[in-house]
Amino acid sequence: MTKNIPEKIMYADNSSMARNLKEVKKLGKEMEQEKTGEELKKEDGLTPDPKQ
């Protein structure tokens, strides 16, 4: 059943905090590329997650 799941995803450290400053910076760069709620509405017609 896990044959088609890439190894990178299988062993991802989800729900864990960044371990060091290098990882924090890497995650920050990844987040900069994500669309904002307004961009999701306008470009894709999607509803963003509610504020928590």
From TrEMBL:
It comes from the Bacteria. Residues 27-52 are annotated as: Disordered. This is Multidrug ABC transporter ATPase. It comes from Neobacillus kokaensis.
